[in-house]
Amino acid sequence: MEANGHEHVIEVTDLRRVYGGGFEAVRGVSFSVRRGEVFALLGTNGAGKTSTVELLEGLAPPAGGRVRVLGHDPYAQRAAVRPRTGVMLQEGGFPSELTVAETARTWAGCVSGARPPQEVLALVGLAGRTGVRVKQLSGGERRRLDLALALLGDPEVLFLDEPTTGLDVEGRRDTWKLVRALRDGGTTVLLTTHYLEEAEALADRLAILHEGRIAAAGTPAEVTAAQPSRITFELPEDHFLGDLPPLGELGVCGHEIEGRVVRLRTHELQRTATRLLTWADRAGVELRRLDVRSASLEEAFLGIAREASAKTGTREYAA
Ligand SMILES: Nc1ncnc2c1ncn2[C@@H]1O[C@H](COP(=O)(O)OP(=O)(O)OP(=O)(O)O)[C@@H](O)[C@H]1O
Question: Boundaries of each ABC transporter domain copy (predicted)?
Fold first, then answer.
């Protein structure tokens, strides 16, 4: 469990999951999560995120490979692992006639050493909704109730499957704040999300899954750094791409032109931007709607998904 001075509370090695009918949803996935870290699993629809997380939660045995959570096999040693983990599933599935407070109390009855339900409801911003029936909650409020229930056992490891789906911007930011506070308090968080901004805001490290395999992994900065930055501008009517200095000299590694809009890709943003602007200045050319930006995680994600799809000949992703 110790590696390079870090305690790995989740260790996944060559994990495989095969569904009835022989479909291989997880095809040799390996990663580890350190104590007190937020780790995000990203991927397109059907990439295998939930299938992986369910194996970590001990809901099914793997078809191959190894999972350890807090040093135990979460399926075979469920009794040792379950009390120390909190799980927020994609669908909570509570009896909808119960109120928020009744739901939290009922759930607390199933958790050994549960925190006071009122305390966790306050943490997720539901203190004022305790008397409301679950069926009357908004989608975002249900997600917050799911999160409150996952926190009842004061878990060391928290599994959050798309925790902010359906939340408005403020609710999402509140959840981020709470996840950060939990992390700062030493909780290890494994998160799946479709919101790349969320992964960028929360994750210490992440892995991008594609068709059951890890296509990229590292810190958000590492995953992003491998992707080119972009410079976009509009050429004036009387100018053409050929009027620019040779693109190789500008340090451009790829380009597209659509009407008068030029998009340049570069791994040397400062050099390319400086040379381009120096040329424009000397030539007296105004580069309209100039936009210079480093690759975001979203661009990295789309680039990785495109590359992976090109290799496997599947779906295309727009830039
Ligand atoms: N019970 C099941 N039986 C057969 N195939 C399944 C089952 N559950 C999931 N799959 C398939 O396994 C693949 C991975 O699904 P999974 O739900 O793990 O993906 P995901 O990355 O979580 O997707 P999403 O982002 O849409 O939630 C998909 O092709 C899915 O259709």
Answer: 10-236
| pTM (2 d.p.) | 0.84
Residue nearest to atom 4 of ligand 1 (CA): 19
Taking the mean position of all CA atoms in its chain, how far away is CA 252?
30
ipTM above 0.85? yes
Which residue carries 């997600």 as its tokens?
143
3-class SS at 220? Answer: helix
Atom of ligand 1 at shortest distance to CA of 194?
25
Give the pLDDT confidence of 35-90 residue by residue, as tens digits: 999 999 999 889 999 999 999 999 999 999 999 999 999 999 999 999 999 998 76
- Ligand 1 atom closest to Cα of residue 43: 21
Ligand 1: does its nearest atom lie under 6 Å from the Cβ of 193? no
Contacts of 204 (CB under 8 A, 6+ apart): 37, 38, 39, 183, 219
Mutate to test the pocket of ligand 1, among 24, 51, 161 (most ligand atoms within 8 A of CB): 51
Please return the burial class of 215, using the count of CB atoms within 10 Å of its CB with bins 0-12, 13-18 and 19+. buried
Q: How far apart are CA 308 and CA 213, in angstroms?
A: 10
Q: How far apart are CA 73 and CA 249, in angstroms?
A: 55
Which residue, 183, 280, 193, 265, is CA-closest to 231?
A: 265
